[in-house]
Structures are given as structure tokens and as C-alpha cells.
# Entry
Amino acid sequence: MFSKVYSREKYLARLRPFYDSDIVKVITGIRRCGKSFILKAVINELYKKGVEESKIIYLPLDKRGFKNIKTAEQLESKIESLITEEGFHYLFIDEVQNVKHFESAVQAYAEEGFSVFLTGSNSYLLSDEITTKLTGRYLSFETFPLDFYEFLEMKKFFNLIIDSDLEKEFNEYILNGGFPKTLEFPDINTRQTYTRGIIGEIFEKDVKTRKRISNIAVYERVQSFLINNYSAPFSISKLINCLKSEGFSTKANTVRGYIEDLQKAKIVYECNRFDLKSKKSIKREQKYYLADMAIYFSTNTDNRMSYGPTLENLVYLYLKSHEYEVSVGIIGSFECDFIVRDKNQSYAYVQVAYTLHGEDDKATEKIKEREYRPFRSIKDGYPRYIISLDKYPDQQEGVHHINAIDLFLGKVKI
# Structure
């Protein structure tokens, strides 16, 4: 049993139906978001169910005693040395990308009926090699840094002080971010130093070593541009013009390749636009959202919060982490922040605003008109929501107005 492992129920609930399946379970997500601890939580559950220790094989390939395993042959040899009896086993391999051509060994054990769980660097786990060699044999389970509910629950788990004012906790969460290990550090500066280290680690281990970056300065500028323009409409031509104005000459395909690297590393997520009239997804007219708000605040000296884009980013992460399909909606000349579809193929429309209240009645009326207007062009009967930080609901025109913190804590649902 592993001690002091906070069980992230949102992800364990998705994995449980496959605990005993020979389908390979691949756990993805940005580095340091807690994938290894999800593996440990699964192992703890198996022990509690009465599974014998001899039936569980756990290989943390980044830890002492396992770091020398570099080839598929060495991996197989290590696994065989840990098998003491015939029959069904659970095989957990953490940081599997450390082994070259690991796919062949993994596939062999899955074909023998083993229940295999993998975590590792996303640029490797999402590569052509694994999708080709394990086609039809694996399922990907995407994980994210802690959401606000998990942030509070993990603080309780480790007996940390929680402010009675949830708005203060929410502000701390935004700046602190949801990388679990940050809760070990006492102040915001230390936490942000840790988060900057994660970004550097991703670049060094996932991007730089996986493919040859032809121009590191341009790559870093592209990364900075996306991080600093989260939740904003994106234009590759605008980015290229920005690079040119700063003295960088590069091609659009190069920039697109760097953006793809950032997506594979799960630093950013792409959200395409969907035209409700044509019923088509509009490629290359997208927005990008950060995997965690601390990525922005740790890489900028200014910690002043722009609540509108920040809240939009957090709502996007909430929707993605709850397995919604998400698009940015285009309704004629208007934009709806999100069109969402759940697992039952039910749709909903979502607008996100920091507040519906301005400094006076005229400003309030203007804000409400801006947020409600896109919904008026929607003719179907799917539910419509406005999510804001307002404490009191403003129910108009059949639109559901919900408080963002209540949504994140599970008190209300979309």
C-alpha cells in the first residue's frame, strides 16, 4: 500500500470498469499533474479489494533501481523477474517513455491477458509509434492538474488550512495553480518557481529531445505568445507578423509545428470554432487555453488578474476534465463562448463573464446585452447558460445563470 495518496475520484471512476481488462490503459496529461499518483491510487484500491501483492507489478522507471531499464528487452527481463506465479497480473509502468520501443513489450503482455497501465511523457504516448503499434489495444485517459474542488479536498487531506472565504481560496487557486506538489510549498513565489521548472522540464525532455527545434528563440517566442494570449481569438498571421516585427523570420508551417509541440506536451489546448449555421467546424480559427493558470502567472512578473479570460480558461478546463466535447460557437456575427456536448450527445450553450454588473445601471445593461445577445440567434431548444462570479442569479430569457465557484465545487451542473 502507498501511504498519503489522495484519490482523485473523477479519474478513478473512469478507470475502474477497465481494471481487469487486457486493454492497455494509457494515462496522459501535462507533466507533474499527478499521473503517477493516480497509478498508486489504483494499486491501493486493488490491495483493498484483496488482490495479492504478488499479482501487482509496479515499475517506476524514473526511480532508483529502475532507471537503467532502457530497452524493450531489459523491460521484459525486469517484468519476468518480478513474476513469481502463473496467471493474471496487473502491470503498472510509470514513465514508460524512458524505454525505447516499449510498445512491443507492452503489447506482448496485454496479449497474454495482463491488465496494463501506462503513464509517461505525452509527446511519446501520443506519437505515431504507439498509435500504430497498439491500435485497437489501448484507451487513453486524459488527466489535468487539480480542479478547484480537488484543490480544496487535497488541502483537507493533508490537513492544510482552508480559508472560510471561498473567494479567497479561489484566488489563491488561480495563482497557485493545480499542480499537486505546489501544496507542499509555503508561498506563492516558491510555487511559481516550481511551475516555471515544469515548463522548462517539458521543453528539455518532451520537445527538445524528441524533435530537433530549428530555432529555439522562435519556439520560445511562440510559446510565450500562446501563454500570454490564452482565451483570445488566435491568428497565425498575427503571430507571424508579431515575430517579424521582433526580427524573427520564419514560415507558417514551422510555427504550426511548434504549436503542435505545445499541444502534445499538454501546455495548451486548441478549441476550434463551430459555425451553427453551416454546421461545420472552422479550422484555423481557434482559441488556445492553458492546462493550468499557474503557467501564465508563473511566467509573468505581473500577477494582476484579468478575470474574464481567466474564468473562461477555467470553465474550459472544467468542461474538458468532465469529458465534454467543446467548441467555440459562431452564430452569424456573434460568438458564443462554448458549445458543449456530453457523452449522451446532449448539447448546451455557454457564455462566460466575470460579472453581469457594471459600475452603474447603464454599464450593467450594456454587459447583459452583450452576454445575452448571442443566445437570441439560437433557435433550437438546448439549454443556455451564463457562468459568472456573481453571487446572485440573473435569470432572463430562459437562460440559466450559475455561479462559477458553485459549478466548480459540484453544487450545480450544466
Remarks:
- DSSP finds 16 helices and twelve strands in the chain.
- The longest strand covers residues 280-290.
- Residues 46 and 52 are 8 Å apart (CA to CA).
- The longest helix spans residues 188-208.
